[in-house]
Amino acid sequence: MRPFLNFARIACWFVLRQWRLRLWRSLAVIVGVGLGASVFLSVRLAVNASVEAFSQGMDAFTGTASLAVAAPGFRVDDSLVGRLLRLPGVTQASPVISAYVKDDSGNPVRLIGVDPLLDRAFRGFSIAGSTGEAGQGVNWMDLMAVPGTVLLGKPLAQRLGVEPGGHFTLHHGGREASFTVLAVLAPEGLAGVEAGNLAVADISTAQEFLGLVGKVDRIDVKLAPGVSADSVQGILGPGVHAAPPGEARESGLAMIQAYQLNLTVLSFVSLFVGMFLVYSLVSLDAASRRKELAVLRSLGAGPGTVSALFLFQGGMLGALGWLAGMPVAAVFTGWMLQGVSSTVNNLFVRVAVQGASLDPREIGLSLGVTVAVSLLASIGPAVRAMRVSPREAMSIHRQEESHSASAGRFWALTGFALAASSWPVSTLPSPTGFPLPGYLAIFLLFTGLALLSPFALRLTIALAAPLARLGGVPAELASAQAGRGGNRAAVSVGALATAMALFLALSTMIHSFRASFVTWLDQTVTGDLFVRPANAELNGYRDTLPPELTEWLAARGDVEVVPYLRRYLTLGNTAYQFEATDMPGLLEYSRFSVLERLPDAEALLLSGQGVAIAEALANQAGLKAGDRFQVQVGAAEVDAVVAMVVRSYRTRGGEAYYDLTAFTALGGESGAGGLRVYFKDRSGDLTAKAETLRAQMLAEPWGPGVEGVPGTGLHTLVTGIFDETFAITGVLLVIALGVAALGVCVTLTVRVLERMRQINTLLAVGASRGQITAMVLWEAVYLGLAGEIVGVIGGLALSVIIIYVINRQSFGWTFVYLLDWRALALSLPLILAAVLAAGPPACRAALSRTPALILRER
Amino acid sequence: MSSGSAVVAATDLTRVYHTRGGDVAGVHGATFRIMAGQVVLLKGASGSGKSTLLSLLAGLDTPTGGELIVAGCDLRRASQADLTHFRRRTVGMVFQSFNLMPTMTVLENVCLPALLAGDALPVVRPRAMAHLDWLGLSHRAAHLPEELSGGEMQRTAIARALINDPPVILADEPTGNLDSVSGQAVADYLAELGRHFGRTVLIATHGALADHLADRTLCIKDGQMSEGACDLS
User: Fold this and answer.
1) Can you give the three-state secondary structure of A572-599, one letter per residue?
2) Chain A partners of B80 at a C-beta cutoff of 8 Å?
3) What does the pLDDT read at residue A135?
4) What is the homologous superfamily of the domain B37-59+80-227 according to CATH?
5) What is the ipTM of this complex?
6) CB distance from A17 to chain B under 8 Å?
7) Which of A591, A639, A718, A769 lies deepest, with the highest CB count within 10 Å?
8) Which of B95, B115, B120 sits opposite A10 (nearest CB)?
């Protein structure tokens, strides 16, 4: 205990008091680390909120069933419940139906229909205000006996402004019905679904309102011990499966967690850049306090104690930075919660996020990662510090760190080798859904770039020699100084290069993705008006459009329609969307962006012998053109050849496009789950015409049951979602750049302070303050240029890895590489602005005292 | 350490530095003994090898040849851990440029070696205050080194050298950066350490301030030792 206390005392005297002397620089590093830590924590808390909301909702809805009997993409007959209950191995069975309907304000409401008696064995729910056994004070039979009665989640009851005994109206598929509130659910069990924005009705009430009499979404089953799912499967019809109910939960969670991993890696960048800052400050101390270290050694401090002082410094910078970052994290989390949950909703699964919880594990993780990163950054300076000989205490003059040219060459070559190995490493096979080789490649690339930084700085100075001549004496002095800057100058170059590489790579990734996305949207998602059932997206496109709508449109004579049916299915472990569409119409008005195809692909598609599949599905299921695609879709057994692999960004799992006529001929459904509407007369303002058509359609008696979006509106909507999704990325990049700029500021000031005597000698022999300022700014420019060169090279390499490796491994899709020239053009002024902004504090430090005072101090 | 026994015993002591321009001998074949309680002056011109010899005696550097035993410790064969322990407990160093830690107060500077040696601060503090009191610095205990005069800084360094009660005090040009009055005071304190406190004191200097205080004088020129009058040219 005593050695620890003594060390803590000495560390406070030696380290913390030094920070007080260099307050602004220490604060800059703490702020930089704090920003990194806050971004890291807030991103994780925001994504965790989505994970929690999703998993709680799923758990509450899944209940304690051992099996769920369902027809993926379809519904099952409720008569199956009785047959299941008669099976010897089945102890309990309960039907469930669920759909998103609308309240009077048009807001979605989750309506869940259950059999209150059968369901008690699966899902717990109790009444708000009651104690003990669920349902106390409420006549459960009323839910079944009195049609139109519901239990409401408390948040929904508050939103609708109703209490037990009150009435409200719901709308669905052109129907509307008044419901009576039987009771308000206590916030537990089933009330956890949709964060309480739900209404629970008796199953027959729900079926009648939804127009699905005799149909249920699934039947939850409990099996007797030792009974397997196979015993149930035997009585199920084609397309109906019995599977553990957790599968949907697991696949949904896997998607969100993959997204979390990507965002975590991105948020780690700011911490990584902050690492350069820590290295910069600790390294400075290790160099500028060599004499003190030698004295410490001469007084009896062992090498371990000396190195521990620098590790302590790094660790404290990390811990204090983390502490400083916490209030910022609170603000960031609130802001990111909205962005992240909206992205999760748009891209992956529906979540109802209420707020982020302060998970102690996440807080501990962020502290651990921040301190670990800071400690890592301090290891190099700590090792150099422990090598300081106690003999240097005898020296009157300050000893400088020696820089060996051969060591410099070794590290430059190592850096080159690491950077060059990043591409082959990125192409190694990766575990499913986790782009480990891709991330490893990025780590190798960044480490390589950091090691190449000293070489890049020397190269920049050599290349910029003509520039130095133009800048006169200050520029030439600056070039000499920057060249002799050693590791600390190079560290600042490394920080800038890292931030710049990320800026360029991610800008290029987003730019390429957006361009490919918009091209796909323009070519493939065509239509003057898109029509679908209300809440179609939320309800998984399982509802069909009213037949009157198709007749009404056909009677107009001025439009062509391309109908489609969509079903969410799985192929092996891959969740995807099956779309049966009017293939002749689709091919007439739209164009697939083809990646791979058979020569007679169109003929195969039109004849129903072929299927077009999205790249994401092809990658995840391992399919390519010419392979067989066999799937049971309801009653239809589809067996077709993969005629095309096409680009598509509609769903994460991808889609399979098959001809609707052929699908119906195979026994599939014949209704339409959605329509693309095209005006025959292409003249005039098509958007205005679509708006008029939409208004006329909604005014029809069946109008409230459908929704229509004009093509231009849809394009605006989805590109808006795209931009919103990447807004977080943009903010994270700006923060990383800000941290890097802080790094330059610290390095430049430190380098100026280290040369105070030399600078003041220059003043004493006639240099003007203007020339000194110019010299400092020129040095900043050299650092900036070197950072730009390394950053651009690294950014281009990184963009290739992100687009062709990480993206493909994470999402299964790729896009056309398109360099973001605007970002590239912007990067140089941006980096120069950052380094020049770092100049004034350094100049102030240089010119703050009179030369006589400085020169006399020595 | 009883008076009359050799605290320092050097036999054919050599320290050679390997440089690009060839080998340079900082100390070459030095043989001498210093008895307990003696105050010894080590005189020599700049670059004669005084600091090198002091570095070897203080365990800051390791001999390349010969034998060197200080207070029973064989410094030629000592490991790094042995040398660290040796510096903590056996020698106290006083440097020409004071070498106080700028971020620590006078009291903290004095306590530092004892804390490094593992002593508890509550035990060390009164001891440090007693040394500061003896050196006339108790009123400066809470000051930072930058607030002290040169003489005060060097007296603080003496207090620091004494804190672990080492048998040997080594001073490298202790008056080199001081005016004559402060220098004389520092020299007097160092001499008193030997005379009244039984410490063995070796003062490396090329000045004359401590000449009259020494029991004997060792001379070093071009790394080679002799006893008696020195040629400082």
Assistant:
1) CCEEEEEEEECHHHHHHHCCCCEEEECC
2) 302-303
3) 46
4) P-loop containing nucleotide triphosphate hydrolases (3.40.50.300)
5) 0.91
6) yes
7) A718
8) B115
